[in-house]
């Protein structure tokens, strides 16, 4: 992915000279992946158990909870960014941790963005598992954990889709990471909190549309690569 | 308001001991090595590449990292007001004075200047080319109801534009006046696409000129135009008395470095497309004492 192109060949491949210094592109790819993958991993750890628990138990307010989660899928990322900024800013409750303009703050905001779709889609996948699976697990003397595991196994394709949806939301959004991350790259051209999306925004704002499109293409290729990996791990969604 | 004060108190209480630890050794080294300076600044200093060109010197000298956060002037000052930056570099003297007056900033220095230019389509339907002053130019645009792209984002350039409209006694509004809420680069792109006029800082315009269909119709003072289009940048530290968490030592080291002859020479030597973008103001045999006086008070002082 980060194999440097031969400078003599690069212009032929992409049609023009890359206007970046060495290390710039790999570093923004790294920041994008680091932030999004971490956020989605944390979201998955929280969302899947919650979704399975909610999906397998009957309780009052379950529909309300489902509605809240579904609404969360529509959170505008800019609003989430502002809310997270308020929390991590020096004036906010987490101010002493000095998280503003760091990758950790970006992970926090993407966690908030990715959790609702992962929870909602996992919930739908769990709800879609045939009741027979649960009954069979019970009948075979399984504990509640065994039942949950059996359901998870059946729902794994749906869960893989949920993770991909969360990842797609995280890596493609620009509003919140711009606000809480600050779009910082060092004077040496190495990104601190600049992601592919905020780099696209930076290029577009200066009218360098070709470069912006190129970065967009890199982002697309990255999402495709992650999809392939997750689909393989998930055992082939929709085979 | 009360909640803010409370949170600031809590934050200061927790942060103060941490800041004490971070101050580092006193045995000869400057005590700032390895630290990070957060600079809230405007898009023009970052997008033109100026800061990337000059910051490595400072980083090497002190062994520190500078995180430059590019925002509009209004947003940069707000970031600093919340104590989320250590030093601010912006270009709207009125807003800077307010920031200082409210106690959020200390030790402001004039840093450098460039100028604003009125740019627009080459055929100049409103006749801005013949305008004797900046206010006359804007008045001509308003009279002709020619499309004008406004930043509309509380940036330094936007603040200057509003001052000029007020001076021109015009109340911009209607179809022809388009607030975009974007950075300078985007505003220039939009002006190109809509054959509109706009007010731009020279730096951003020059660095983007090859990709624009706009020409300079009214020069600023650098090109011999009216002084009303001057665009001075100032640098100031966030008041450590208000925000105990800020890295005041490093902020002052930065202000000292960037207002010293070496860095000022580096600013003067920075060119884009063969043109100098920023003109140093901090070093002079005859220092301008008026820089320490708030903008509105200068006349009283004589």
Give an overview of the whole structure:
The complex is a heterodimer of chains A (239) and B (302). Chain A has helices at residues 10-14, 24-56, 62-72, 77-88, 103-127, 131-139, 144-154, 156-172, 175-181, 196-205, 209-233. Chain A is mainly alpha-helical and 239 residues long. Chain A has a single domain (25-233), classed as MetI-like (MetI-like fold, Orthogonal Bundle), CATH 1.10.3720. Chain B is of the alpha/beta class. Chain B contains twelve helices and twelve strands. Residues 1-28 of chain B have low confidence and may be disordered. Chain B folds into two domains: 2-114 and 231-294, Periplasmic binding protein-like II (D-Maltodextrin-Binding Protein, domain 2), CATH 3.40.190; 115-229, Periplasmic binding protein-like II (D-Maltodextrin-Binding Protein, domain 2, 3-Layer(aba) Sandwich), CATH 3.40.190. The interface between A and B is medium-sized, with 24 and 41 residues.
- Assign the CATH superfamily of the largest domain in chain B: Periplasmic binding protein-like II
CATH architectural group of chain A: Orthogonal Bundle
Helix content of chain B: 40-55%
The ordered H/E elements of chain A are: HHHHHHHHHHH
Cα(first) to Cα(last) distance of chain B is 38 Å
CATH class of the largest domain in chain B: Alpha Beta
In DSSP terms, counting alpha (H) and pi (I) runs of 4 or more, how many helices of chain B?
12
Give a count of the beta strands of chain A, DSSP E runs of length 2 or more.
Answer: 0
Tell me what the CATH architecture of the largest domain in chain B is. Answer: 3-Layer(aba) Sandwich
How many structurally independent domains of chain A? Answer: 1
SSE topology string of chain B: HEHHEHEHEHEHEHEHEEHHEEEH
Q: CATH homologous superfamily name of chain A?
A: MetI-like
Supply the number of structural domains of chain B.
2
Question: How many strands appear in the DSSP assignment of chain B?
Answer: 12
Low-confidence stretches of chain B: 1-28
Question: Which fold name corresponds to the CATH topology of the largest domain in chain B?
Answer: D-Maltodextrin-Binding Protein, domain 2
